[in-house]
Specification:
Helices cover about 35% and strands about 45% of the residues. It has helices at about 5-40, 40-45, 65-80, 150-155, and strands spanning about 50-55, 60-65, 80-95, 95-110, 115-130, 130-145. Strands 2-1-6-5-4-3 form a 6-stranded mixed β-sheet.
Length: about 170
């Protein structure tokens, strides 16, 4: 190593490595969340949110870990099987806070019906010590359609078709 190394360059390189590590930790959080939901590990899911975290689905917010626990407990009891597949993410870091958009697909067994879904999360993350946690997750669906109705369901405007509910327009185009 040469004696004339530039401390400014070394500092810039260190910051770049820290950003890459932060990004990797957030991606690990996203993967751990999907696995915990599918494994029905309620306490693991809840622990991934900040104490005052918020989870939003269909415009309804659950705020704080107790409300999030209640939401997930009910959801986990509704489905006999889930398989979430995170696909792509965009993460924007700003110190100890970050924002992200995550896309994914899910297979959901609900009331004896296999539902295929395409979802998108708008996330806010916060660093707590060395761990990253969800401060907010806002879940929206491109489609949620019983497998038997995939062609008609996905090609229609009203492509949110949860069993037992009337069809409605997708949350995004």
């Amino acid at each position: 190593m040469p004696n004339d190394f530039d401390l400014e360059q070394l500092g810039a390189l260190t910051r770049r490595i820290e950003r890459l590590e932060d990004r990797a930790r957030i991606q690990d959080l996203i993967a751990a969340y999907a696995i915990a939901v599918d494994d029905r590990d309620l306490e693991a899911v809840v622990s991934m949110f900040t104490e005052d975290g918020e989870f939003v689905r269909a415009g309804t917010a659950s705020r704080g870990r107790d409300a999030i626990r209640s939401f997930y407990s009910e959801a986990m009891n509704r489905y006999s099987l889930t398989l979430h597949q995170p696909l792509s993410d965009q993460i924007s870091l700003d110190g100890d806070r970050a924002r992200g958009i995550l896309t994914g697909r899910a297979e959901l067994a609900l009331d004896g019906t296999l539902v295929l879904a395409s979802y998108r999360y708008a996330d806010e993350y916060v660093r707590s010590d060395e761990a990253w946690l969800f401060a907010r997750r806002d879940l929206r669906f491109l489609y949620a359609v019983p497998i038997d109705d995939m062609n008609d369901g996905v090609c229609a405007t009203e492509r949110i078709r949860w069993p037992g509910t009337p069809p409605r327009v997708g949350d995004f185009l």
